[in-house]
Design a protein that fits this description.
- The complex is a heterodimer of chains A (14) and B (257).
- Helix content of chain A is 0%, strand content 36%.
- By secondary structure, chain A is mainly beta.
- The termini of chain A are far apart.
- With 257 residues, chain B is mainly β.
- Helix content of chain B is 14%, strand content 47%.
- In chain B, the strands form 3 sheets. Chain B has a 9-stranded antiparallel β-sheet with strand order 6-2-3-4-19-18-17-11-15. Chain B has a 5-stranded antiparallel β-sheet with strand order 5-1-7-8-9, with helices on one face. Chain B has a 4-stranded antiparallel β-sheet with strand order 14-13-12-16.
- In chain B, strand 8 and strand 9 form a beta hairpin.
- The longest helix of chain B has 11 residues.
- Chain B is globular and about 55 Å long.
- The termini of chain B are far apart.
- The relative contact order of chain B is 0.19.
- The chains are: A mainly beta (14), B mainly beta (257).
- The interface between A and B is medium-sized, with 14 and 24 residues.
- Strand 2 of chain A pairs antiparallel with strand 10 of chain B.
């Protein structure tokens, strides 16, 4: 099964 | 003072219609170079990034940087009071706590004005790195919208595979499975009708259809859409806004547990 990732795993906060 | 007059007011209407279901409140960043917005949906799975350059407005005046926090549902309701051929002006006084929207009919004989209260929005901004994507697919935006709609009858996820042959969308669900395969166009009458795949290497990723469906609401903005993929990074879905900017959506993939 696949799990939905969130953007925080790829993009850092400014 | 900030004042931006958009002769093609319907661009703003289409933009807000395209993002209002994804994002409730957003900060419009007004700078001398233009207007931008970055906002995530409430689950932080997708992100909207809008850019409208100053030269797309006529005129555009921005003496100092301003942040206008606006509830997009309210803005969408107010924009419904404009006609499609209206010229739309957004104005904000330096010390004001509201944004003023002015709708002007093409013959200038009807002028309506709405004063929208600004809201304080605490919104987390992300740095989006420049990415060399493995595959960039360009297709008619109506085709994208149709495929997303068709895949939704099968399930809530779609796997998109890009190869030298073209791009394949496939979905699996309780009722069965299905796929749509688009080949690269060989000869088309108009560039807007073409499907092109710019491939560095083959890539296959899985995404939630719910978000793609929300992104596809931007189709009226542009005849074509660009999808950019790399292994294990968010998908970039881009609609160009005439000659003045873009509306980009980023979507985190579904990954193996």
């Amino acid at each position: 099964a696949k799990k939905q990732a969130t953007l925080g795993a790829f993009f850092k906060p400014k | 003072m900030f004042e931006a007059r958009l002769p093609q007011g319907q661009i703003l209407k289409k933009l807000i219609e395209a993002v209002r279901e994804l994002v409730t409140d957003a900060n419009f960043e007004c700078k001398p170079s233009g207007l931008s917005l970055q906002a995530m949906d409430s689950s932080h799975v997708s992100l909207v990034s809008l850019l409208m350059r100053a030269d797309g407005f006529d005129p555009y005046q921005c003496d100092r940087n301003r942040t206008l926090g606006i509830n997009l549902r309210t803005l969408a309701s107010v924009l419904k009071c404009s006609s499609n051929d209206d010229i739309i002006t957004i104005r904000a006084e330096d010390d004001g706590d509201s944004a003023i929207l002015i709708f002007e009919s093409p013959s200038s004989d009807r002028l309506s004005e709405f004063d929208l209260k600004l809201v304080d929005i605490d919104n987390e901004q992300l740095v989006i790195p420049d990415t060399q994507y493995d595959a960039v697919v360009r297709m008619p935006s109506a085709e994208f919208q149709r495929i997303v709609r068709d895949m939704q009858i099968l399930g809530d996820s779609v796997t998109i595979a890009c190869s030298k042959d073209g791009v394949k969308f496939s979905a699996n669900g309780e009722i069965g499975s299905g796929s749509v395969r688009l080949k690269q166009s060989s000869a088309v009458d108009s560039e807007d009708d073409a499907v092109t795949v710019d491939l560095q290497q083959a890539v296959s990723l899985t995404f939630a259809l719910r978000y793609l469906s929300l992104f596809s609401k931007a189709a009226p903005l542009s005849p074509t859409v660009t999808l950019s993929f790399s292994k294990d990074v968010p998908l970039l879905v881009e609609f160009r806004i005439a000659d003045m900017g873009h509306l980009r959506f980023y979507l985190a993939p579904k990954i193996d547990e």
